[in-house]
Amino acid sequence: MTATPQDPSAPATPPAAGSEEAQKVRDAYAFEGGRIHLGAMLDGEEPDPSVPVNLSLAMLNRHGLIAGATGTGKTRTLQIIAEQAAHAGAAVFVADMKGDLSGIAVPGTASEKLTARAAARGQEWVSRAAPTEFYTLGGEGEGVPIRTTVSDFGPVLMAKVLELNETQESSLGLIFHYADSQGLALLDLKDLRALIQFLTSKEGKGELQGIGGISSATAGVILRSLTAFEASGADVFFGEPAFDTQQLLRTKDGAGIISCLELPGVATRPALFSTFMMWMLAELYQELPEVGDQPVPKLVFFFDEAHLLFKDASKAFLDQVVQTVRLIRSKGVGIFFITQTPKDIPSEVLAQLGNRVQHALRAFTPDDAKALKATAKTFPTSSHDLEEVIPALGTGAAIVTVMSEDGAPTPVAITAVRAPESSMEPAGAEVISGIVAASPLQAEYGTPVDRESAYEILQKRAAGAPEAGAADGAPAQQGRAAEPDAEPAAKAKKKEEGMLDNPAVKSFLRSAGTVLGREISRSLFGTRKRR
């Protein structure tokens, strides 16, 4: 169901607009196809319900930006677009950074104030929730766990979360290339560490010489970053069962399901969650067929705290983000970035965002003033002085320009944003727990699986060789579960290194392709291609 006159929440057919500007805005935002109702044009201090400001449903795949200072209404704008897109039949993905989006699964509570606010914006408010699925990264928090394997994640994204420089990223790429060429599946971080140690050991360092090799110093940096990454608790995000991103495209009774990723448990690891969301997009890009422009997009993806994705990113990473954003629209996917100012987004990405909703910015410092000036220049020419208008916007008001159905930007509309139909309060732990318990995905992804992989196989091979036991002066260990929990770190490290130097291990790695599967191939973002 789209935001058309047949939609109970849509504005009624408005009377003719009064002023020349109002008529211009009304004509520009009166799209013929399905539409998302954003609100009504502000005429001075009051909204004019006769001039609705809409967003074309078919143009959601031209991507968008929702920007503004903290507390100006970005989250509610995200909520109204997400819930209407879902009711129109598009699947939706949102990341709930602060825990205040979960109310999208609960019908809103009516009040006189809310009804009056909606009527002033030309909205016939109805209380309704959207079908919602709650997820969590690696099982940290309440939700269906999302995990992936190290092999699936790939070297480009792994370099981003490990905060490696370009040289170190290149070396990590060689390590993944070796694993791929040998058909060696890397399921978790222990597998990756074991392989790095082998490839820099006396027995294994020759394996990469034909393709450039890696220095011990570079390997040491990668291993230290990997150790710190694990110590932060991030190891729970890598493993099996690996999440199938096709689950994000589900619908129910004609409505798209909103996939809400709860993130309060990873607030201290912002680079991790932003990179994980980029992994989801990369997976979707390689899996989805080309469909071109559709009346209703397959998926609308909201990327909150988007500036974290681009912070300290390598050129290779940025290039892949730009390419993914540019090309994924033909797969029927629209991406909305949510952040404070447009300057948080690289210009190459910003140029791809056809739909803009800019809430208030405050100019308290010279840097703020520069950001405000730059923001105003990103909008089409307007009769309004946007450098004056943007800081004066109240909470729930925004500057809007969107992509029209003929591919041209609409004129700037100063807009009073409509009210969400779902709850603006968090859903509560009991509601979320009930939704998660009833989810058909919980049985498939709820319990982690630790099948035999590179780490276990390498240990088992080394343990079976007499020289490995003699060198260690200790009985052979059979897999991860056999390791004593209280074993000191130094002793464990020595044992692991001794194991990896063993000729039996080297022999195993050379034949790993016949043991673990065919050679792995990778997508443009370095993620594993499915076969």
From TrEMBL:
Residues 1-10, 466-481 have a biased composition (Low complexity). Residues 47-529 form the Helicase HerA-like C-terminal domain. Pfam families: HerA_C. Gene3D superfamilies: P-loop containing nucleotide triphosphate hydrolases. Residues 1-24, 466-504 are annotated as: Disordered. Residues 488-498 have a biased composition (Basic and acidic residues). This is Helicase HerA-like domain-containing protein. The lineage of its organism: Bacteria, Bacillati, Actinomycetota, Actinomycetes, Micrococcales.
